Amino acid sequence: MLIRTTPQIPTREITDERLYLDRRAFLRASAGAAAGGIAGALLPVDEAAAQTTLPNVRKSPLSTTGETLNSFEDITSYNNFYEFGTDKSDPKAYSGKFKPSPWTVKVDGEVGKPGDYALEDFLKWFPLEERVYRLRCVEAWSMVIPWVGFPLGDLIKRLEPTAKARYVEFTTVQRPAEMPGLRSPVLDWPYREGLRLDEALHPLTIMAVGLYGKTLLNQNGAPMRLVVPWKYGFKSAKSIVRIRFTANQPQTAWNLSAPQEYGFYSNVNPQVDHPRWSQARERRIGEFFRRETLMFNGYADQVAGLYKGMDLKRNY
Fold first, then answer.
1. pTM for the model
2. CA–CA dist 104, 221 (Å, integer)
3. N or C of the chain: less Cβ packing under 10 Å?
């Protein structure tokens, strides 16, 4: 089968891609206005108003290179966020009532500095970086996204986990009045995910607060979400309101719902298929041909050591 290969693209050209997309959006908006309407605009007015440009974002040397970014429209209109609905278009369609501000995150468990922290506290402590990462969904589709955020490891070190802490649990907000998908019993709400402490401390793991240089939209996990690029996308909990440090492995939403399908680790692994989806290949959104999936989503050089000696078929 013909597999499309992607040419090597310098980081500076990735930035040019964004400028190109912004210019295209401007031209489309102008064309729509000239025609007497706003149909040509890339974003609805309410979405554009909901976003703020993030200042002083520096580019990270840990970004993935040699990949073409997915468009802003791809990233913000094709999502899994079951709190708003199970169809890919539901998060964008039904997240308009969600209020991502003000925002407080509870920190508790085996940690030296527990408390209720405002999102502004985190943003004051850490400079923001742009991290271009591949995103691989367990449903065998993928994207390349220019996240903006800060290393989770920096936050963890500041919170000072105790010697007993071995895992970190993340809990997503639960507001039925603003999140219509919560009326469905598809999962045991609220959504919970977890990482081993060394996974959470890894330099590739970030807390994202934006993408394409602006604050996250509701459908992407506003105002703050986890991003772990070598794991399937569902491991990256969205709209996080609680971070709990634990001595024991936490229970996770998908593992509780279908343990035969969703393990705790959920590392991208083309050699271990999901019962309903082969993981050997993936459909990059915007491409015609499927491409081969890379071990650990292409980040094996950085993270394979975390799992040395483990049976990855048993620890899926």
1. 0.85
2. 14
3. N
